[in-house]
Amino acid sequence: xxxxxxxxxxxxxxxxxxxxxxxxxxxxxxxxxxxxxxxxxxxxxxxxxxxxxxxxxxxxxxxxxxxxxxxxxxxxxxxxxxxxxxxxxxxxxxxxxxxxxxxxxxxxxxxxxxxxxxxxxxxxxxxxxxxxxxxxxxxxxxxxxxxxxxxxxxxxxxxxxxxxxxxxxxxxxxxxxxxxxxxxxxxxxxxxxxxxxxxxxxxxxxxxxxxxxxxxxxxxxxxxxxxxxxxxxxxxxxxxxxxxxxxxxxxxxxxxxxxxxxxxxxxxxxxxxxxxxxxxxxxxxxxxxxxxxx
Amino acid sequence: xxxxxxxxxxxxxxxxxxxxxxxxxxxxxxxxxxxxxxxxxxxxxxxxxxxxxxxxxxxxxxxxxxxxxxxxxxxxxxxxxxxxxxxxxxxxxxxxxxxxxxxxxxxxxxxxxxxxxxxxxxxxxxxxxxxxxxxxxxxxxxxxxxxxxxxxxxxxxxxxxxxxxxxxxxxxxxxxxxxxxxxxxxxxxxxxxxxxxxxxxxxxxxxxxxxxxxxxxxxxxxxxxxxxxxxxxxxxxxxxxxxxxxxxxxxxxxxxxxxxxxxxxxxxxxxxxxxxxxxxxxxxxxxxxxxxxx
Lengths: 294, 294
Prior knowledge:
Order of helices and strands of chain A: EHEEEEHEHEHEEHEEHEEEHEH
CATH class of the largest domain in chain A: Alpha Beta
Mean pLDDT of chain A: 97
Helix content of chain A: 25-40%
Number of helices of chain A: 8
Low-confidence stretches of chain A: none
CATH superfamily of the largest domain in chain A: NAD(P)-binding Rossmann-like Domain
Largest sheet of chain A: 8 strands, mixed
CATH topology of the largest domain in chain A: Rossmann fold
Distance between the termini of chain A: 26 Å
Oligomer: homodimer
């Protein structure tokens, strides 16, 4: 059994626990959380530091993306392998380069950005490029609540609660509709200006709408519509499409757990999902998997 | 540059040549064919044996699936890496087990069943299972001409020419509609009986239709509609769908060529595509690929 710790216990962390409890390959040794007030969740001990746990093979890091680099570096340097769903696309290649020597030095494995985008969508984008090297891929998200954008919106001063909806406008163009509950004293104008300046929102059409209760809007359904039209060899008009309609944190959690399994099978180093053989994500006998899926 | 030979020069072989000629990473050292009567095609020499060529890094095997095992074994034992699109699903796991020690012994790499199904569809099926481990995947093919089934139909005694169409009936159930031109003296009844007994057709609803000219029916368009509905962790109703509409031999050829590139990056042994990191199929700088696609 793989001994896993859950690091961070927000939305994703709770769904990771759900997933680990039914996965045949894992045992959950503990939850590391600064904010969870319970001593045990589903029989799993909650601690403040990973040092308070026994041996951990892999930590599933469910912290906010902005905290991921420091947390992962710390865990790796203790020799603990990690997976995370770091989702700031422009910083992934750099993060991999930073973590790779740390992981190798410690004899550990880090699989980064292992959610659905970045993550499984990245695998599909890479696969489609191998199938039609010339052409254009469009990734259209939603409509659905973006977890990363919602966390970023909540971090804006003056925001009491927030929900960021991603609305696909086609050809990889998106509208962000951000519903905010304000702290008393905050103004919608100030919050809107700060939010639109944030890196998460700066490149998209963004609308900020003030509501009295964000909670009643919350639905974890999300999706993607990823298309590629391109050229295989010298033959044009090759058309590909991947769509999904999913519970977002449940899918992210499942991919993290599948990636934690894969982390046990890689040589020390830092990887993105497109660098990991897909079979390594799956439970069970290799020959049986090949017989069933190839 | 990777020195590639094309082994077999039917439909797939011709599109592999098209693809290699525009790929930045390959040089084509020769075509091995028993039937091609030209001395050169597009400036590439046609020879009867791979031994007549200089150094070959990888042979792209475009023989009929039934000939693939023997051809690949022979090439591997000469130390030449191989890729093929062997498509008899029930024999893939066994073929891999047979070829793996041969490849290791020779210090070569063999990537088998690297077309679109088996091949890229297998990668998608494996990825979807990592995203939702419980559930059902349906792979619906066509409508389109099946290359493997057409070759099998042509091999039936009494058949002068044939075309096998795959018609999807939903939930992975297919109808085969086989158009045949008969040799003089052959009867439709005899041909139909032999064809329905063939392993390629025995498990599907099969209709055999006699026509006077198969050539006018031929269109290489094909497609797939692959769906999975399943459970991520403990969360149900996760829905996924992959569809494509493609020129079939052009796509198969492109995946073979991308896989030949990947073969240069693996340790000696025999692999299916789900065992190969997807990034290895792509041309270019690893960091740049990660920046662009992850």
